[in-house]
Amino acid sequence: MRAACYLSACEFAGRWLDPSGPAPGPVVISRNMPPGPACAVYIVCDWGGRVLYVGSTAAGVRNRLRQHLADADRTSAWAELWIIPLRKDTPLAEIRRVEGLVGLALCPLSNRALPAVC
Fold first, then answer.
1. Could you read off the pLDDT of 59-76 as tens digits, one per residue?
2. Is residue 114 part of a domain?
C-alpha cells in the first residue's frame, strides 16, 4: 500500500480521526509492537504491499493484533500494519462504519466479512 492510499483511507474517519492525525507510516507486525491507539481501524499488508485484511478495535491495536497472531496459519503473510487512529470517544458504531468504508475501498484479500455501511 502506498502512503497516498493510506491517507485517502484516513478521510473515511472524518471528524472521528484522532486530532494528532494519521500515523507517519506502517508498523512492522510483531508480538512486541508498540501499543498503538485504543480506537482504530487497521489495515494489514503483506511484504509486497497488498492489502490482506482490514479490521477495527476499541480495545487497543496491540491487543487486537495479538489475538489475530494466535492463528499463525491465517496471519503468516502479515507483514505491515497501517493504523487509522480514531478519537477515544468514537462510538463503536462509527468505528465499524469506518472499517466498512475502508474495506470497501481497499478490497482486502482475506477478510471473511466487513461491517455493513449504512
1. 999 999 999 989 888 889
2. no
